[in-house]
Amino acid sequence: MTSKGIEQAVTKVRFAILATIFSGLQEMRLSCGGGRPIWLSIIMIILLSGPFLFAQQRKEVTGKYIEVRSNHVYGSYCEWSGEAVTGGREAVLAWDVEAGECDGVSLSGAKIVAVLVGQSNLSDESTPRRCVVLLDSAAPDSQRQAVQHLLQDHYGKLLGHLLKTYAVPIEYYWGNDQANVRIGELLTLSMRRARLPEDAMRGAQHWYDPFIPLTEFTLGTTLKNSVHCEDFGLHWDVSRAGTTGYYGRFRLVSQ
């Protein structure tokens, strides 16, 4: 059973317990002749215990995030119209988990990279897509397994069909105005804070939000986007600066 399934089952049990309690309260109220002191005392007990009864057994997973696409997320109309169909089919997403857990396993320090390729622009949620997931080889097996469950539960639709998962050394650097990811010769992402208006063409505007909800994010100018992935039979190496992504912070809730 997935973590979402477990959560739904636990919620049903909690509501069943609540229904039983209220049924018992009704019977007690009648048997006591509507005695108000007893009734009020029981209500107070329920109110005080409510937070414990209904507390969702979920934990937040938080950290840093980078997203680079093969199309402009902020650009001119000409760029948008030219890329809307034929561009934007590739993207690289990277997570650097700072705190949280999944399946009872700590995810602190987990580093994750997903390379996506779609049949058309990935901003179209309905377009079929495939992905390769890269997990940090320095992480223990239990953490890598928990990370895969987390990705499937929360980002399964976004990532699409998983072709393969690799364990590789991942370097993740985050500064005030830049974010970088490097996986040997396989992948390099380099991004800095966008400088507007000089980083964009005249008349540029915002076209696409980040793929995932973020608590805060910064429009980024990608300086390097290099991927060599045999699973897709695709290689790209783009060093032309462009406003093609974001970096920021994510927060999600895990069982």
Q: Layout of helices and strands, plus pairs?
A:
Blueprint: H1 3-31, H2 36-54, E1 59-69, E2 74-75, H3 77-83, E3 90-99, E4 101-102, E5 105-106, E6 111-118, E7 129-136, H4 141-159, E8 161-168, E9 171-174, E10 178-183, E11 187-193, E12 205-206, E13 216-229, E14 234-238, E15 242-254
Parallel strand pairs: 7-8
Antiparallel strand pairs: 1-3, 1-15, 2-12, 3-6, 4-5, 6-7, 9-10, 10-11, 11-13, 13-14, 13-15
Please explain how this structure is put together.
- The protein has helices spanning 3-31, 36-54, 77-83, 141-159; strands spanning 59-69, 74-75, 90-99, 101-102, 105-106, 111-118, 129-136, 161-168, 171-174, 178-183, 187-193, 205-206, 216-229, 234-238, 242-254.
- It has 255 residues and is an alpha+beta fold.
- The chain folds into 2 domains: 3-54; 60-254, no CATH class.
- The strands form 3 sheets. Strands 1, 3, 6, 7, 8, 9, 10, 11, 13, 14 and 15 form an 11-stranded mixed sheet that branches. Strands 2-12 form a two-stranded antiparallel sheet. It has a two-stranded antiparallel ribbon with strand order 4-5.
- α1 (3-31) packs antiparallel against α2 (36-54).
